[in-house]
């Protein structure tokens, strides 16, 4: 269950409105940049710094023991495309709130379009009404 939680949080972030690219808009680079780094506090070392998820997706050949160093080196190059993770207390209880909000609000993506975002049911209803 923990691994599901960690994986979900690396690929979903309601607070960040992470885009999903499809069709002509998708590329390996764009796919990697839509992942999120997360800080797991004391758990970072236990999980071999997998919280440095963006660099892991961009350069999967980098061994886990160089992920933090590689992330720091890539930040200036990535600029606005890198989202700094929220710093964790020793135990990452703050991520439960992120998970809860995402599970409550991130239910749907549009069936059309090559750049889509998760939406809540109310956002989907509003979009459908405005297009009538």
UniProtKB/TrEMBL annotation:
One MF annotation (Gene Ontology) recorded for this entry: oxidoreductase activity
Top-level division of the source organism's lineage: Eukaryota
GO biological process: lipid metabolic process
Entries under InterPro entries matching the protein: FA_desaturase_dom (IPR005804), Fatty_acid_desaturase (IPR012171)
Residue stretches making up the Fatty acid desaturase domain: 2-82
Pfam family, one: FA_desaturase
Assigned protein family: Belongs to the fatty acid desaturase type 1 family.
Protein name per Swiss-Prot or TrEMBL: Fatty acid desaturase domain-containing protein
Organism classification: Eukaryota, Viridiplantae, Streptophyta, Embryophyta, Tracheophyta
């Amino acid at each position: 269950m923990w691994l599901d939680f960690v994986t979900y949080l690396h690929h979903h972030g309601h607070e960040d409105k992470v885009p999903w690219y499809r069709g002509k808009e998708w590329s390996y680079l764009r796919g990697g940049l839509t992942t999120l780094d997360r800080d797991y506090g004391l758990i970072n070392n236990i999980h071999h710094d997998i919280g440095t998820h963006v660099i892991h997706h961009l350069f999967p050949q980098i061994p886990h023991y160089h992920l933090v160093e590689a992330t720091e080196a890539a930040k200036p190059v990535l600029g606005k495309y890198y989202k700094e993770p929220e710093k964790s207390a020793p135990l990452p209880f703050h991520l439960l709130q992120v998970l809860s909000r995402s599970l409550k609000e991130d239910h749907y993506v549009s069936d059309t379009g090559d750049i889509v975002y998760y939406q809540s049911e109310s956002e989907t209803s509003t979009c459908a009404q405005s297009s009538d």
